[in-house]
Amino acid sequence: MDYLYDGSFDGLLTCIYHSYYSDRATGIYLEDDYQYSLLNSCLSVQTAPELAFKVYSAISSKISREALTHTYYVFLSNRPDKGNLIHSYLRLGFKLGPSVSAYRTHPDVLPVLETAHKVSFEAHRFEGLLRFADMGKFLYSSLAPDHNIIILLADFFADRLKQEHFMIHDKKRELAVIYDTKEWYVSDFSSEISLGLSADEAFYQELWLKYFDRIGIAHRINPRLQARFVPHRYRKDLPEFNNILNGHHRQ
């Protein structure tokens, strides 16, 4: 039987719990994306935080903290089969214990490690690429990452911008991390909501664009290398590549 979860990490871990203590799942899928079929039976699993916590604790104590991190990072990935990847990985992990980390090429381990690395790498990349704009009462930054990484960015920027109110907006998923100088939380946030720059921000973005244009050495421009470090799909949210003030667009 396929188990369907609500999209939350607790929901996924609840499915893992029932796969052990009820009927073993043939697959674990996000309910909103599930392709129903007459050939497959399925069950919508109600999220139970207390059961999810048991699985969470068991991963940490019976496998490793590293395995828990890998599990969470895969959950944050954009892979449609992530529920199945995590399910297979944890079944092997609970069987082998901490030594599962030595089975890096195992078919139930390798895709988890590769996916977790991609998520971690993208989050690390955005730690340097994210640009904040002054909206008057708070700082605002937008991005459209491949993976759901704004939670990973929240602690990083909350530690570095402790005295600032800020918002990190994932336009692809219409989610935002909102920080109030004490704590952060995740909220739905529509791209259709209009936000206006402060007068000072407009001035400083113009200065930044001029600096970016003039600092480059013409004969050392390397578009291929630049694209490796700043992929084209990220550039629409970087003012030095797409100036929102006067419509000047850099290629």
Topology of helices and strands:
Blueprint: E1 2-5, H1 9-21, E2 27-30, E3 42-44, H2 49-63, H3 65-75, H4 82-96, H5 110-129, E4 133-134, E5 139-143, H6 150-160, E6 166-170, E7 175-179, E8 184-188, H7 199-215, H8 223-229
Parallel strand pairs: 1-2, 1-3, 5-6
Antiparallel strand pairs: 4-5, 6-7, 7-8
Helix pairs in contact: 1-2, 2-3, 3-4, 3-5, 5-6
Give a written overview of the molecule.
This protein is an alpha/beta fold and 251 residues long. The protein folds into two domains: 2-121, no CATH class; 130-246, no CATH class. The chain contains eight helices and eight strands. The chain has helices at 9-21, 49-63, 65-75, 82-96, 110-129, 150-160, 199-215, 223-229; strands at residues 2-5, 27-30, 42-44, 133-134, 139-143, 166-170, 175-179, 184-188. It has a five-stranded mixed sheet with strand order 4-5-6-7-8. The chain is elongated, with a radius of gyration of 21 Å. Mean pLDDT is 87; it is low at 244-251. Residues 81-240 form the DUF4130 domain.
User: What radius of gyration results from the CA coordinates?
Assistant: 21 Å
Helical/strand content category: alpha/beta
Could you list the spans in which at least 5 consecutive residues all have pLDDT below 50?
244-251
Strand runs, count: 8
SSE order in H/E notation?
Answer: EHEEHHHHEEHEEEHH
Mean pLDDT: 87
The largest β sheet comes out as: 5 strands, mixed
- Estimated helix fraction: 40-55%
Number of helices: 8
Strand order of the largest sheet: 4-5-6-7-8
**Beta-strand fraction estimate:** 5-15%
Q: What is the number of domains?
A: 2
| Shape designation | elongated
